[in-house]
Write a structure and sequence with these properties.
single chain, membrane, 66% helix, transmembrane, Glycosyltr_2/OpgH_subfam, cellulose synthase (UDP-forming) activity, 254 residues, transferase, mainly alpha, 9 helices, 0% strand
Length: 254
């Protein structure tokens, strides 16, 4: 991105090339994918902080808006992560989401926000890519937060350029936050099943179910038997939806 950023600022223009230039360069494992996204997020954050598109000379208005959106995306994903995890944590810790609002008021903001996000993604990337895009955004949020912390602390990587493709490990420490998130999501559903409060936040249960269904796809890449895991994704999602629906019906019945 830095190369195109400098070329655009010196008057160069972009063209759309419909024919693939390279094949097989995408990361084959989730560990390499996480490392690649971390490097991209750090580059975007440095661009925002030290070479901001708003004051970069030579850019057109559309180019300025494009690079500003690209550099802001990791920070926006971090904010969305906090917004998304809130209802789930309210189940685990049995706490209110806000001291000034009820549990039932949260969906009035959260559900329209989620629906509008899905509509924008569907309009931009197509309906078939919507679930994958949302899952990737949820998966990448902890990585983006780490990228911002590294840039803010002055961390400089030992190497730059393309991610190493010769050796592609399947597991990395960068994937642990996503595994922990999935564990907390499943734990919240279990907590809800044994919660005896009369005002249990049923919407938070539905929210947790949506997030589990969303993150199942990206996490399946961790397994060495990816084809088998992908074959079981639909039954896993159906089981999660059924469990959440039964618990929700039980709540309304009692």
């Amino acid at each position: 991105m830095q190369t195109s950023y400098e070329l655009h600022s010196h008057g160069w223009s972009s063209v759309y090339h419909p024919v693939p230039i390279s094949i097989g360069t995408a990361p084959a494992t989730v560990a390499v994918y996480a490392k690649q996204r971390l490097r991209w997020a750090m580059d975007s954050t440095r661009l925002l902080l030290f070479d901001n598109p708003l004051v970069k000379p030579g850019l057109s208005r559309w180019q300025r808006a494009h690079y500003l959106h690209t550099s802001l995306s990791p920070l926006l994903a971090c904010a969305q992560m906090i917004f998304a995890v809130g209802p789930v944590l309210s189940i685990v810790f049995r706490s209110q989401l806000s001291s000034t609002a009820s549990q039932q008021a949260y969906p009035l903001v959260g559900l329209p926000y989620l629906a509008s996000t899905l509509l924008f993604i569907a309009a931009y990337a197509g309906t078939r890519s919507t679930a994958r895009t949302v899952g990737s955004a949820l998966f990448n949020s902890p990585i983006y937060l780490l990228a911002f912390a590294r840039v803010a602390s002055g961390y400089r990587p030992r190497s730059s350029g393309a991610t190493e493709k010769a050796f592609q490990p399947r597991m990395s420490l960068l994937v642990l936050p996503q595994i922990l998130l999935a564990f907390v999501l499943v734990l919240s559903v279990v907590f809800y099943a044994f919660d005896t409060r009369a005002d249990r936040p049923v919407f938070a249960l539905a929210w947790a179910g949506i997030m589990i269904v969303t993150i199942v796809g990206p996490l399946s890449a961790i397994s060495e038997r990816r084809a088998v895991v992908e074959r079981w994704q639909a039954p896993m999602r159906a089981t999660i939806v059924l469990a959440v629906a039964l618990l929700s019906a039980w709540t309304f019945a009692h």
